[in-house]
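Aim 2 progress update. The chain analyzed this quarter is reproduced below.
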Amino acid sequence: MPPTATTAFLSVKHETDECGIPLEPTWSVHELLSSYPKPTLSSAALTRLYELSALIPPEEGSPEHAKLKGEMEELIKLVEAVKMVDTSDVHPTHFKLPDQQTPTFDNEPSGQLLLRNAARTKDGFYVVDSDRKRL
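Predicted structure tokens:
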């Protein structure tokens, strides 16, 4: 049987505490991701993400633009690496997680009643003005 990441990990001895938890890191996300190809994100795609967020994008060619583009490419690489994980042998949980409920208070408006306080609404939604013109 060829070695896998799991068998390779199990064959290496790591110093552990009394609960069997390694005292030093045994792997890193950086090491794992360094073996994956780096995706490219176009400047147009980055600008579109900013538009969808109602933010003003940094000027193309600026150091801030280059930094943000690189950070986004690293995040895309992480997402693509997670998507490649084989989960075919992973069984779903057999219990239902408890519903998270938001506490409510008597005589406090909620839901559609809150729209009455909005400066602008359209079709049952809040209208939020952005600080830039839409293209």
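The chain is about 30% helix and 5% strand. Residues 1-9 have pLDDT under 50 and may be disordered. These observations will guide the mutagenesis experiments scheduled for the next reporting period.
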